[in-house]
Amino acid sequence: MAMAEAGIEAPKPSNPRNLSLQTKLAIGPTSNRTGYKSFTAGDFEFRRDGYFAHITWPNGRHQMPVDTFLRALMRDVAWNFFYGTVNFDLVFGTTNYYGEVEMFAGATNEAFVAAGRDFIQRFNSDELMRIFKAMIGDWTNAGYDPFAAPMETGAPWGTKSGSNDPAVTRVRVTAKRMVGLPGDVPRRTDKSGYPVNRMFADVAQDEPQIEAEPGFEDEVAAFNLFAYLSRSDVTWNPSVCSIVRESLFCPTSEEFTLPVEHGNDRVEWFVQLSDEIIWAIKDRDTGRYRAQVVCKAGDVCCMPADIRHQGFSEKRSMLLVWENASSKIPELIRQGRAPTVPVTF
Ligand code: PHB
Ligand code: FE
User: Fold this and answer.
1) Ligand 1, CB cutoff 6 Å, lining residues
2) What tens digit of pLDDT does each residue of 331-341 get?
3) Ligand 1, from 229, 239, 256, 258: best to mutate by most atoms within 8 Å of Cβ?
4) 293 three-state secondary structure
5) Rounded to the nearest 5°, which phi and psi values hold at 245?
């Protein structure tokens, strides 16, 4: 997501494994039994049934509960493969090379790699995205919203039953400068279809009063970020609310689990704005546990560039994710020319 949002021109995608691009991408026929379509990307095959998403590749197969799969797929689609690696679970995922993307089975799992059973193929990002978008559209039934907290949506199970295109084609909010500025992303209101979430009923809704010097009325702005986040209809979906060059403030509201284990390709900061999130931190490449971090309101922490992390938030909470969208960082880190931590003491 980052570079297009920041208006930065991407360099040629790096290709550390020297993989060629796969060109076989296909939407299969509808199953008579389940009503769902199957999908092909390179040598990966995807199909779903009443409970599971099944992924097969030469010499391997994997299955995930379909709710877990759809929540993860939704994020990968909405974030355009995000920064670095999106692990759907301990086996399957994608790694973004910004223009091209690797899809893998077992490549971030120590046991698969040690057994020589990891499988990775590379794709043009837009081409794989077309398949992923078709898959989330076809596999999401009426009444199920993969962006919603589990207690705020229907169930995904069973044979094909309708669809929920408005939910799965949501466009991620990305401010050009800042929410609330003239011509930029508007604040959320009851009228615009964003009521206060049940878990944020106590969040004050007043807005700051702005007293700009004459002539600066269009330049000076402020908004109540807590009120804005209290009205988010989605979970675990950072949106760019303010941006200064490559520095992106991406606040989000969180309930239940971050549906992916995010493997960083750069440092990122978390500012816990309310309530509490427990973070499980693992080694990015092997999946070995490194830490559990409990972030309470007011805590600030930094995720190093060599880890993966997944958050758990029982009470809906507010989190500010702070990203540096510079396209140069992942390669500098790969070459050992930039550190994997923001500070050393
Ligand atoms: C992250 O991977 O850093 C991340 C993703 C989505 C969120 C919060 C954090 O909602
Ligand atoms: Fe992350």
Assistant:
1) 236-238, 252, 254, 258, 262, 268, 319, 321
2) 999 999 999 99
3) 258
4) strand
5) 50, -115
Cβ-proximal residues to 187 (8 Å cutoff; 6+ apart), any chain:
179, 180, 207, 223, 224, 227, 228
Percent of the chain at pLDDT > 70 equals 97
Paired tokens of 318: 């507010």
Closest ligand to 320 CA?
Answer: 1
Instruction: Choose which residue among 81, 321, 323, 324 to substitute to test ligand 1 binding: the one with the highest number of ligand atoms within 8 A of its C-beta.
Output: 321
Quick check: helix, strand or coil at residue 93?
Answer: strand
Average pLDDT, stretch 309-331? 97
pLDDT of residue 1: 47
Structure tokens at 333: 């880190």
The region that residue 100 occupies, defined by phi over 0 for left and psi between -120 and 50 for alpha, beta otherwise, is beta
Label residue 3 by pLDDT band (50, 70, 90).
Answer: very low
24 pLDDT tier (thresholds 50, 70, 90): very high
C-alpha 58: how far from chain center = 28
Are the beta carbons of 182 and 210 closer than 8 angstroms?
no
